[in-house]
Amino acid sequence: MVTAEELTARREEIAAAPDLAALLAHLTERAAPLLVRLPPIPETKALLSTDGGICPEDGAAFVFDPWNPTAHRCPRCEKTFTGERHDRHWARYQHLWLAERAAHLATLAALADNAAAADRAVEILRAYTRTYWGYANQDNVLGPSRLFFSTYLESIWIGNFLAAAALLRACGRLEKVAAGAVSGVAEEAANLIGEFDEGFSTVRPGTTQRWLRSPAGSRTKTSPSAPSRVPPGCSSICCAASDGTGCGTRGRTTICSRCAGY
Ligand SMILES: [Zn+2]
Prior knowledge:
Layout (H helix, E strand, L loop, with lengths): L3 H13 L1 H19 L35 E2 L6 E2 L2 H29 L2 H17 L19 H20 L5 H19 L13 H5 L44 H4 L2
Antiparallel strand pairs: 1-2
Helix pairs in contact: 1-2, 2-3, 3-4, 3-5, 4-5, 4-6, 5-6
Bound molecules: zinc ion.
């Protein structure tokens, strides 16, 4: 976890380095629309479907617009479409985008003493502490999740959510009540993620349990030294669902030697 002393040191480094100062200015500029108004918080959890987010006339993927939850524009035919399945496809990206923006805004609060950014970051966190419990842990595809259909996506989301909270707390911008509510969400997300055995992928870098080894890691079932079930030479998730005896994801991954003949 970052400390107030580390933030002070980082602020001094930024002040002394023109490239870092320019980067901070760029982040500040990009955050400007977020300070004007709170982006919409999705009312539903994300849904993975074959037709959500896809133009029914030409099959093009809609343009993601974080400011418009119900009107979805096709970049090919330029028409706009509505519908619940499109909205829930949009929610997938919006949940992830909002958690990233919370971390983005909290960074400005911590490194630039930006009070408006701090307030908006807290507002996003607070919104999720209220709505998180209303997203049902059902209709999942790849493990338990409240916001998504995938434990992996939920872990990415909670990573940014907690990064924002940690930065705000370190710079004294996260009041006690909000910190308690954030901890409640983190605990629930860690329980959901920690109960899901990802198989061999738990020992691979970048996967869900690796996220959990950082801020909310107390619920992690595996450890960095856990033995891998990956056959030698496999560099993909192809064995995940079947422990090396089959492969359900050949189209998207590199196939290990053990699975190649299946
Ligand atoms: Zn179209």
